[in-house]
User: What shape does this take?
Amino acid sequence: MAEANLTDDGIHIEGLRKRYGAGDTAVDALKDVNMRVAPGEVIGLVGPSGSGKTTLLKCLGAVIEPSAGRMTLGGEVIYDGAWKTKDLRALRRDRIGFVFQAPYLIPFLDVTDNVALLPMLSGCPNAEARQRALELLGALDVAHRAGAQPSQLSGGEQQRVSIARALANQPPVILADEPTAPLDSERALAVMRILNQMASQYRTAIIVVTHDEKIIPTFKRIYHIRDGKTYEEAGEGRAIDG
Amino acid sequence: MISLAGRDILHSWSKFVFTGIGLGLLIGVTLSMAGVYRGMVDDAKALLDNSGADLWVVQKDTLGPYAESSSLRDDIYRDLLGLPGVARAANVTYLSMQVRQGGSDKGADVRAMVVGVVPGQPGEPGYLVAGRQITHDHYEAVADVKTGFALGEVIRIRRHDYTVVGLTRRMVSSGGDPMVFVSLKDGQEAQFLKDNEAILSDRARTAANPSLNRPGVPGLLDAIQASQASNHNVNAVLVRVATGDDPETVAREIRRWKHLQAYTRAQMEEILVSKLIQTSAKQIAMFLVILAIVSAAIVAFIIYTMTLGKIREIAVLKLIGTRDRSIAGMILQQALGLGFIGFAVGKIAATLWVPIFPKYVLLTPEDSLRGFVAVMLICAIASTLAIHAAIKVDPATAIGG
Ligand SMILES: Nc1ncnc2c1ncn2[C@@H]1O[C@H](COP(=O)(O)OP(=O)(O)O)[C@@H](O)[C@H]1O
Ligand SMILES: [Mg+2]
Assistant: This one.
């Protein structure tokens, strides 16, 4: 069923390897990673500690360089034995949304500007960037906190704002690093529901790194990573009611 | 794009304001120190301007009368008046001493420079803020307002009471003591008159000397004692050059023919500013250097700690695509913002507290401008440490733990 949706868009990883260090102390964190995530799809990336999840996110997030393999984001090859662009900063800004374990909002910007900052960094005029931010905040049900400071928000609201920020430049890809770890079951499922909604609404391919048992049943497909290698598995794809 | 620095300053404004105030007081001290030096220079110039002289004639080989002591016979001014180009010449005496407020034995002592002048001649204070100039030969005084004396007040100089008949301003010695003007006769007396004890013992010694106290010569002892008790010396002669004559030429004539030293206005300024104030200037320069270093350390420390407190946010900003240049700019602007607040506070503080300083403190717009540029430069330099730390932050640290 999922196979039908797989196109060259979304995320496409083939034979990805990452070796830290060299010589005797070298660590092969990623040995053979192969993944495909279609636009609008949310997949889980699950694995024990030390299996290479964070390393894979950093490679995909274009903050560390893989050692070999090939990565395609939103139909564009970004790595094929070497980075395909010099401006990794612009690549991250325009093509990748990040959601972290904690919201990591910028404390000195209000909610709107936390979201609008990304389009502004891409050169979008302030008014237009804020307009886009307000739309996203509305879609995430936090428009009423648009003028608040991040410190005035609840944890759940902050996480929704951080998802809005990840979506702000309408990237083809969102990388979520244990986004539900600090949340209780209800809130964790709410975040998953939002990610699923956003994925289908904005045709975004989303990878959620997690070992959170509460949310694992929500994935239709799961990649297990063990000792630097990925194994694909069908998930329960349980509907999240709310 | 929005100003990240501006938003951060608004967000943590209390930190900026309090640090800015602390820094500002330091900058205020710095501006005041510079003002103290400017005040000394300006006092020196005012002193020269207000004495109404073109030439200062003093004892040969001295830098008198302000920088070194100088003694001249009090009839020399007549010889000087005979020289071509000399329009006016007048004796003056200078003596730093305690002047007692309120006369007799009550009241507080005020450190002052007592100046003996010939009424109506060069040396007299240039203008008065209240009262009149000295008209009587004895026991009248004109005081600089910084003495704190009031018009009509009785003050005690040595053994005599004087009435303050006039008040002047900006007449202070190079040491910063306010001046009290008295008549030349009173000035000479104050300077050379010994106290009662000394007179009595001198008299006894003279009377006991057989060569001075000869039984066969009546009146000799009295004459000798009278000459010992009075004084025919002054410290300087102030000369006014005739209009159209070159002061330097006249000064050269005086030096050549009278075996005296004569200084022009420019030379006096050189002596006062370069020689006399030189040590104070170095002292103040040392202070300025230390204050600059302390300010830089404060700014560096504050900006650095604030940056360290934002490492996570900086990593996130970099991860989502903020340029290093923008982050460096944010930190630099914050440092400059701090400097700006500090300078504003310092300028206001200095302006407010300068009038209550005992000595004249002159804040010049040029010094303020220089101070502003220096503060901004210091802040920019101080921010480099924090900028370096921010540039080193790896965006990868925003992902994973
Ligand atoms: N910077 C690094 N230098 C060397 N080894 C590293 C580095 N980061 C991670 N590793 C190693 O790579 C392996 C995978 O780590 P990581 O990607 O953090 O796994 P996970 O996120 O699944 O716990 C581990 O063995 C870890 O020790
Ligand atoms: Mg990890």
Notes: Helices of chain A lie at 53-60, 88-95, 111-121, 126-139, 155-167, 185-202. Confidence is low (pLDDT under 50) at residues 1-7 of chain A. The first strand of chain A starts at residue 11 and ends at 20. Strands of chain A lie at 11-20, 27-37, 42-46, 68-73, 76-80, 96-99, 173-177, 205-209, 221-226, 229-234.
